[in-house]
Structure formats: structure tokens, C-alpha cells
């Protein structure tokens, strides 16, 4: 997977609503990869990012979840749990490949990237879903990436 200091690729993917987004990661962004919609660990992680979404928004940090599920699956997942976090569909694994995230088992491994100014600012492998969203936000605040309040 890409590591801190690596250039962030520009990626294009469809969100849960079918809108095609192109992300260049100039603005502070968290991109978290997860294996599958509506599985126990992935649901915990998505709910965690969703619970912290207002704090991320307030800090000026965009958040996107990415899996190899399609947009319709993402839409159903969001509706089932009342999630607001944006989910990007990567059924061909192109976004995962751009970040060198393993999809050899047919699903993305659970990793998270913090990106800004077109650069990987932090990379988290072997992520435990519970409490991860809070930890990443705390790390972003401690990193000096955000302007002083």
C-alpha cells in the first residue's frame, strides 16, 4: 500500500448515488478501504466514521469509504443503517490498485489513508474498525495538518 510521503493518485469512482467523482486529494481527505458492505466489522467502521462525520466536516476533512461493492450495494448499506458517509464503488478494483491496496481475495483489505496537498499524509494498515474514526481524527488534529483554531 502507499505510504506516508507518497504522491496521492487522482482517482475517479462512482458514489452511492451513481454520481461520478474525481478526487485529486488536494484538500484534506480520509479515504478508508473496507472489504464488504453490511458485514460486522465494516458496519462498525462505517458507523464510526458516520458518527464522527460532523467533526470531520467542521475540521474541513472529507471522508470517503471505498469497497469493491457496487453503487447499488452502497446505497442499500447507507439506507439500512441511516449513514451519511459517502461510499465509493470500486467493483473493478481500480481505486484500490491506485493505492496499492490488496484485493486478491476479491475484496479490499481494511486500510485507511489521510491525504492532503496531493500527498499521503498517513497510512494505516491492519485497522481495527472499533474506534478507528476517532483515532484518525485525533491523529489529524495532532499532526498540524489543520489550521489552528
UniProtKB/TrEMBL annotation:
<dbReference type="GO" id="GO:0005737">
    <property type="term" value="C:cytoplasm"/>
</dbReference>
<dbReference type="Pfam" id="PF00578">
    <property type="entry name" value="AhpC-TSA"/>
</dbReference>
<keyword id="KW-1015">Disulfide bond</keyword>
<dbReference type="GO" id="GO:0008379">
    <property type="term" value="F:thioredoxin peroxidase activity"/>
</dbReference>
<dbReference type="InterPro" id="IPR050924">
    <property type="entry name" value="Peroxiredoxin_BCP/PrxQ"/>
</dbReference>
<comment type="similarity">
    <text>Belongs to the peroxiredoxin family. BCP/PrxQ subfamily.</text>
</comment>
<keyword id="KW-0575">Peroxidase</keyword>
<protein>
    <recommendedName>
        <fullName>thioredoxin-dependent peroxiredoxin</fullName>
        <ecNumber>1.11.1.24</ecNumber>
    </recommendedName>
</protein>
<dbReference type="InterPro" id="IPR013766">
    <property type="entry name" value="Thioredoxin_domain"/>
</dbReference>
<dbReference type="InterPro" id="IPR036249">
    <property type="entry name" value="Thioredoxin-like_sf"/>
</dbReference>
<dbReference type="GO" id="GO:0034599">
    <property type="term" value="P:cellular response to oxidative stress"/>
</dbReference>
<dbReference type="GO" id="GO:0045454">
    <property type="term" value="P:cell redox homeostasis"/>
</dbReference>
<keyword id="KW-0049">Antioxidant</keyword>
<dbReference type="InterPro" id="IPR000866">
    <property type="entry name" value="AhpC/TSA"/>
</dbReference>
<keyword id="KW-0560">Oxidoreductase</keyword>
<keyword id="KW-0676">Redox-active center</keyword>
<feature type="domain" description="Thioredoxin">
    <location>
        <begin position="2"/>
        <end position="142"/>
    </location>
</feature>
<feature type="region of interest" description="Disordered">
    <location>
        <begin position="1"/>
        <end position="20"/>
    </location>
</feature>
Amino acid at each position: 500500500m502507499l505510504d506516508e510521503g507518497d504522491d496521492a493518485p487522482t482517482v475517479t469512482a462512482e458514489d452511492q448515488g451513481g454520481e461520478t467523482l474525481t478526487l485529486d486529494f488536494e484538500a484534506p481527505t480520509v479515504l478508508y478501504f473496507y472489504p464488504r458492505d453490511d458485514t460486522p466489522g465494516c458496519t462498525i467502521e462505517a458507523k464510526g466514521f458516520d458518527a464522527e462525520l460532523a467533526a470531520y466536516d467542521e475540521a474541513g476533512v472529507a471522508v470517503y469509504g471505498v469497497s469493491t461493492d457496487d453503487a447499488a450495494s452502497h446505497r442499500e448499506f447507507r439506507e439500512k443503517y441511516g449513514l451519511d458517509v459517502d461510499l465509493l464503488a470500486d467493483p473493478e478494483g481500480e481505486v484500490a490498485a491506485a493505492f496499492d491496496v490488496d484485493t486478491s481475495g476479491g475484496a479490499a483489505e481494511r486500510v485507511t489513508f489521510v491525504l492532503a496537498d496531493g500527498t499521503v499524509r498517513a497510512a494505516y494498515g491492519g485497522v481495527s474498525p472499533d474506534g478507528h474514526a476517532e483515532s484518525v481524527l485525533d491523529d489529524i488534529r495532532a499532526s498540524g495538518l489543520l489550521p489552528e483554531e
